[in-house]
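Re: weekly structure request thread

Next one in the queue (354 aa):
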Amino acid sequence: MLSPANTARNEIGARRFFRMTSSIAVTGGVSSAVTGVVCAALFVLSAATAVAQAPEDAAVRRARDAYNAAIARRDLVAMGAALAPAYHLVAGRSAQSHGAAAMDERWRTAFAGDSLYGCVRTPTTVRVNAGWGLAHERGRWRCTYDGVPKGARPGHATGTFDAKWQRDAAGQWRLQAEIFTTLTCEGGASACLPPDSIHARRGAPPTAPRPSAREVHTARAEYNAAIVAGDAQRIAVMLAPTYHAVFGRGTHIEGDSAARMDWEQEFRENGRASCERIPGEVVVNEAWRIAHERGTWRCRSGRGVQRIHPSGIYAAKWQRDTGGRWRVQAELFTTLRCEGGSTVCLPPEPSPPG
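Done, posted below.
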């Protein structure tokens, strides 16, 4: 676990409000009709910006191709070189791993126990902040693995993902974090095990079932209301115990208690309503009680003459607890723009070379 002391207190760009614009539900692995209008401007860039970023976009896609190829040939050395030292994974079943060393062990164990195991991640969108050496990738994934027990029908899982990349000191793109959400799984109950449950908080009343995408939107609205109220405790109760966030400049925070303390400091330093989140979509795996949310954000930070206005895109993963309430498992923010001048809009330190 990361201690609260390890979080950067000057981190900006991780807190925003939501306005509900769209949702997509997936029930039993079958996509339903879109129930809202996806925010059309979610990834719109000017023509000049798009042209300027095209080489970096292509470089990130090449880095993804190289990572896929390393997985296919089970090359642990090449796979490790693709990850930043503080890399964080939220897997399709919601298990989490932190650090390149932990991922090496995770892959090594998977390959040793499963002759079929393999995954391909296909990007659909890449957005780059070239000046800060950051990129946000969105796409779909598929994996194949042995059935459990041996001899059972192999499993085939698919889903959606978001990833954050950072250029290291040598100019190579490396992964900071990935969030995967399983949307379909074929192979029977032994091969398609749902995530471990999140236990309801003590004393929390059960909720009546409603359409899940709408419930996620309602939960985000409650999160927004807690931000407006400056109530860090209300925010914390909406987070899973193993909550993990990667902020706009790349710092991490882990655990609901650490997040509560971080919000308390945010409210002391910047006041209430310092950020806004604008959703683009919510996709839901009803059978597994998990959801994947995407959107844009903008913030204000600082007082007096040094005002900072960062903005960017984000992804969040939710899971319904045993009491029926949706809780945030992880959030991933990427800063794409910062207004306030070079003296206050400082880019993150690059990762050490691999």
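The chain has one domain: 4-339. Residues 4-339 form a domain with the Nuclear Transport Factor 2; Chain: A, fold (CATH 3.10.450.50).
Next request, please.
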